[in-house]
Each structure stands twice: as structure tokens, then as C-alpha cells.
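I have been asked to look over a protein record a colleague put together. This is what I was given:
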Amino acid sequence: MNTERKDNLELLADRLSEVSKNVTVLRGGMTAGQACSATDSQREISPDEERVVVATGLYLGEGFDDAQLDALF
């Protein structure tokens, strides 16, 4: 993943964190431990709290499952 896309992803996540306290970033270049930690953090969020996942297609594609998310863009 090129640097510009990573920068855009982080910028989007920063902006969204102003309106949602639960923003998770999943992007290329993360270690397996970082990705696992991020997805574990998502699972720990109470079902009645909002959550936002900002990710590249590699992480948020077929096989991604989070029952609490109701929309993917």
C-alpha cells in the first residue's frame, strides 16, 4: 500500500474519531499482532456503542465479520 493511501486512511480515521469514540484502523503494513489487537478491541466494544472501522480492501473484504456493523462503504 502506498504512503498516500495510508495517510488518507489515517486522516479519515482522525476526522471520524472527532464524532465517534470507537474508530478502528485496519491497513496494509500492519503486523499480525497489530491487526489482531485492533480486531480484538472491536470485539470488546459494547453492542450498544457506536463503532467505525476504516480499512483497506485487503482487511475489509470477503471473510470479514462483525455483526455489530450494519453498513460498509
Remarks:
- Helices lie at 3-16, 32-43.
- The chain has two helices and two strands.
